[in-house]
Write a structure and sequence with these properties.
Largest sheet: 9 strands, antiparallel
Distance between the termini: 40 Å
Order of helices and strands: HHEEEHEHHHEHEEEHHEEEEEEEHEEE
Oligomer: single chain
Helix content: 10-25%
């Protein structure tokens, strides 16, 4: 039975990664928040968003060696404060109470049950049916593209067939009925929760808020909201060179279906992009949700996202299905966001502190991730350099740019870049997480320059490449440049 465990886990991970790439972190479809989260009068917006008069920044320049053209266009830049605190932080353990509050904020009074290895014959029969369809050429090409080669189709079919065989064998050992066990909000080793890895002969240890160094402990639960099923995962782990403290909630996918198919099947996808009011409402809902979890005041920014499919030629095809995508950051001293690191990127030992969420235009929840959570300790006010000093420091750094400063994860074979065009459209004051040793950090004030770049003279690079990058970070304590290459996203 367990000989397919590695295959299943790897395939599940591969499907997750492929799906995330295929829909470009777009839509998952869940359910509406409880009524309390749909109210517009949360008070959070007025409490944490202060009105300022933007001064803007519009400028064009060329690097000293002539290789890099720089265009700065930001209407919203509103200057630099006279001082900001430097804040000492460390990883924040996800407590059992925190997970419980997360469940209450999303599912209300509905009970959550343990989610993991236990399956009835009826549930396995559903998996068998899904994978029997999933092994067909039609379904494989529908999920991965009509232009998929016959060899690629056969490789996918072989992997899916092994999973199908596993469930057919598991059916013989599964019980007819199971009594759902209500979640006890305790963390346990991953093997406890693994459908293919659970050892029934072991009595697994359980943890509350004290997780030993080097132990990866998970809490898994399942909940139901408005007829849809969700998974809740929380994770605490600290090793010698890595840490992760996170909470995630997402819609359960049906085996053998692509994410786009699963989300569309819920009936909550929209063929129309969200209005500005729907975007602002989504921000208010998200900020209220985080506050109810007990994580303080956060600021969220929402934008329209169209689900897309990645084609074999590297291009993206819009599917005409829209959702709302949000990112958020914790408010500290009424100043901006941590600059380096997102929920998808490792930063000096752990994930960057971030909030990521997807919902439908009508408020239906698709996906939530809280990662890299930090616990603040001391804060010390520091004077900052002046606006003119910061602008001069930024200009001096940009003048030194060369084509060697191109996006770090692109590489070239025979052709070499003939030039670099950088367009900066987001300039903001925020924090950078600077490691100080032993999983301790300082959040230092920075001026961030976000934008896109286009590499000239290299034909294999898509000219439409438009990922937003942190192109420059200025330490506002002294005007020095912070090297972002290890943290680039």
């Amino acid at each position: 039975m367990k000989r397919f465990a590695g295959i299943l886990l790897l395939f599940a991970l591969a499907v997750s990664l492929c799906a995330c790439g295929g829909v470009q972190r777009t839509e998952k479809t869940g359910e509406k928040f409880p009524a309390a989260l749909m109210e517009s009068g949360t008070g959070l917006q007025s409490a944490i968003k202060t009105e300022t008069t933007p001064i803007g920044w519009h400028e064009e320049m060329t690097s000293d060696n002539g290789e890099v053209k720089i265009y700065i266009h930001d209407e919203s830049f509103d200057g630099i404060p006279e001082e900001m605190p430097v804040i000492s932080v460390k990883p924040k353990t996800v407590s059992s109470d925190m997970v419980r509050r997360t469940a209450e904020a999303i599912f209300g009074d509905s009970p959550l049950y343990e989610y993991g290895w236990m399956l009835t014959r009826a549930e396995i029969e559903k998996r068998i049916a899904a994978w029997e369809e999933g092994v067909t050429t039609e379904r494989i090409r529908q999920s991965h593209g009509e232009d998929l080669s016959d060899g690629a189709v056969e490789n996918i079919r072989r992997t899916r067939q092994e999973i199908l065989n596993y469930y057919r064998e598991a059916w013989a050992y599964a019980p007819e009925e199971l009594t759902p066990k209500e979640c006890d909000w305790l963390f346990r080793p991953m093997e406890y929760w693994d459908e293919q890895g659970h050892d029934y002969s072991l009595e697994y240890p359980a943890y509350t808020d004290e997780i030993p160094l080097g132990v990866s402990a998970y809490l898994r639960a399942q909940g139901r909201l408005d007829g849809l099923d969700y998974s809740l995962w929380a994770h605490n782990s600290e090793h010698d060179d890595f840490w992760d403290h996170s909470i995630s909630v997402w819609l359960n996918d049906t085996a053998g279906m692509s994410q786009a198919e699963a989300y569309e099947a819920t009936g909550h996808m929209s063929a129309v992009a969200a209005t500005d009011e729907q975007l602002r409402q989504a921000e208010r809902n998200a900020e209220a949700l985080i506050a109810r979890i007990g994580l303080g005041a956060w600021r969220c920014e929402a934008h329209v996202r169209e689900m897309q499919r990645l084609e074999d030629d590297g291009s993206w095809t819009g599917l005409g299905l829209f959702c709302i995508e949000m990112e958020g950051w914790k408010i500290r001293a009424d100043q901006g966001k941590p600059i380096a690191g997102t929920n998808a990127e490792l930063v000096d030992g752990g994930y960057g502190e971030s909030f990521y969420m997807i919902c439908a235009n009508d408020g239906t929840l698709f996906d939530i991730h809280l990662t890299g959570l930090l616990e603040d300790s001391t804060a010390e006010q520091r004077p900052l350099i002046s606006l003119n000093e910061a602008m001069d420091a930024a200009r001096m750094a940009m003048k030194r740019w060369t084509t060697d400063d191109h996006i770090h994860y692109l590489y070239f074979e025979e052709e070499q870049p003939a030039g670099l065009v950088r367009e900066i459209t987001g300039i903001s004051v925020g924090y950078f997480r600077l490691p100080t040793g032993n999983f301790t950090y300082e959040l230092i004030p920075t001026l961030s320059f976000r934008g896109t770049e286009r590499i000239e003279g290299v034909t294999e690079i898509n000219d439409e490449y438009s990922a937003a990058l942190t192109l420059l970070l200025i330490d506002l304590r002294d005007g020095s440049v912070i090297d972002t290459s290890p943290w680039q996203i």
